[in-house]
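Priority: medium. Attachment 1 of 2:
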């Protein structure tokens, strides 16, 4: 039972039939979770029956699952690009068509629907890598953070925890001017970016925080990378960047700067324990060592990386070097945290020709604890003091029935359809497999159709 005694203060108790309590403790039966003020105040094991007034969660309850890398408007491309062939760069042209036409109302409607789809799939937190800042041609809105504020409104309505990763984007490629559609993405200078991002502070709250992002070494010059990194350090913000997604990016960086993107970012002060390299697909041994020594995050987005033929990143080498793996759905070719997590291991099997590089508990850590750290939240764990975000997966279905290792079965076989209950900040977002506030399929259909009607 959940009771509300103020707008931000929730009290509640949940009884979990089974709960995964981390790599050290594994799956425990009869776990009572007590929630107050958006945080876990007690985690008790061995509770044999449902306590009076508690909500029963049948199945396996996991800590909150973080989608550490999202471009929410890319969801409009699903079913429109996947059978077209081509390359990452031709796909990008189609993506720019959607980017060119979105206005604030359309952006908010689409983001609300996509964030709600994430919640249905089991995500509780999202890092939105936000660069669609301005109007067509770069025209400023009256509120320079209009588009960012719409993302906050969308995440709040959909019930997700949000890290708004505001991206600096200044160039159309190394040494190249911005293309017309890219004018929407750019503030013109890193100082103008910092001034605008400073205005986001009022949007932060119990379920919203602001982080920084360097779009890529293609789009941000070294001096500006250093300035973004300094801004993030001064404000205690997490910092993300697209890194080595394509060989062409590496080749251009070496030609222009005499080093790889990772080394360039490191020289600029960006690589540290609050930094997350997104994709990190085409790395040298030195790149892996730099990211590992920094205990940086590395966000793999396997379903997008497959779709765009990006390649398979060196997940085992990064983990062994000390980097923290996490997951993202990126372009939303599908929205399925279980598939993203297990693909870290399954894609590695294809590349290495052997099995078992990543244990199930390590994949669960990538989806939960490491993802929350990447986004700057004390969560992704069922421990006292963590934010009260958790997900319950039905284990009595055709995919999971009969498993003797339920945690392994969930990570390797579960699907979004198996998600029964989602709680974020102590509030129920999904109950019995349905979003409590939004007709998600209807909202997706109407918001995506509106995008292409204009394009």
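Attachment 2 of 2:
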């Amino acid at each position: 039972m959940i009771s509300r005694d103020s707008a931000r203060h929730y009290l509640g108790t949940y009884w979990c039939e089974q709960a995964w309590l981390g790599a050290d403790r594994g799956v425990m039966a009869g776990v009572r979770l007590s929630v107050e003020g958006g945080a876990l105040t007690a985690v008790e094991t061995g509770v044999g029956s449902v306590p009076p007034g508690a909500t029963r969660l049948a199945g396996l309850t996991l800590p909150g699952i973080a989608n550490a890398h999202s471009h929410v408007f890319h969801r409009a491309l699903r079913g429109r690009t996947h059978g077209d062939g081509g390359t990452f760069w031709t796909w990008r042209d189609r993506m720019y068509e959607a980017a060119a036409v979105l206005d604030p109302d359309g952006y908010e409607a689409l983001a609300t629907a996509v964030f709600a789809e994430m919640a249905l799939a089991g995500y509780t937190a999202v890092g939105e890598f936000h660069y669609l800042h301005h109007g067509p041609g770069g025209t400023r809105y009256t509120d320079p953070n209009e588009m960012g504020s719409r993302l906050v409104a969308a995440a709040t309505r959909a019930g997700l925890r949000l890290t708004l990763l505001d991206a600096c984007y200044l160039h159309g490629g190394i040494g190249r001017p911005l293309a017309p559609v890219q004018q929407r993405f750019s503030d013109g200078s890193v100082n103008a970016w910092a001034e605008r991002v400073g205005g986001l502070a009022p949007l932060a709250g119990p379920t919203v925080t602001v982080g920084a992002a360097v779009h890529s070494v293609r789009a941000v010059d070294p001096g500006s990378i250093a300035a973004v990194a300094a801004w993030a350090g001064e404000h205690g913000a997490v910092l993300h960047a697209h890194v080595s997604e394509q060989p062409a990016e590496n080749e251009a960086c070496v030609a222009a700067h005499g080093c790889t993107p990772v080394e360039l970012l490191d020289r600029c002060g960006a690589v540290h324990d609050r930094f997350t390299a997104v994709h990190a697909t085409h790395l040298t041994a030195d790149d892996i060592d730099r990211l590992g020594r920094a205990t940086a995050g590395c966000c793999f987005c396997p379903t997008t990386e497959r779709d765009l033929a990006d390649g398979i990143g060196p997940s085992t080498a990064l983990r062994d070097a000390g980097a923290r793996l996490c997951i993202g759905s990126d372009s939303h070719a599908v929205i399925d945290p279980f598939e993203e997590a297990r693909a870290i291991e399954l894609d590695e099997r294809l590349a290495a020709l052997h099995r078992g590089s990543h244990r199930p508990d390590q994949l669960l850590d990538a989806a939960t604890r490491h993802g929350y750290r990447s986004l700057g939240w004390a969560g992704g764990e069922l421990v006292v003091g963590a934010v009260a975000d958790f997900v319950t997966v039905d284990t009595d279905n055709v995919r999971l029935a009969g498993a003797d290792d339920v945690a392994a079965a969930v990570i390797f076989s579960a699907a979004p359809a198996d998600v029964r209950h989602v709680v974020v900040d102590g509030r129920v977002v999904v109950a019995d497999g349905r979003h409590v506030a939004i007709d998600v399929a209807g909202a997706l259909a109407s918001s995506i159709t509106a995008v292409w009607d204009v394009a």
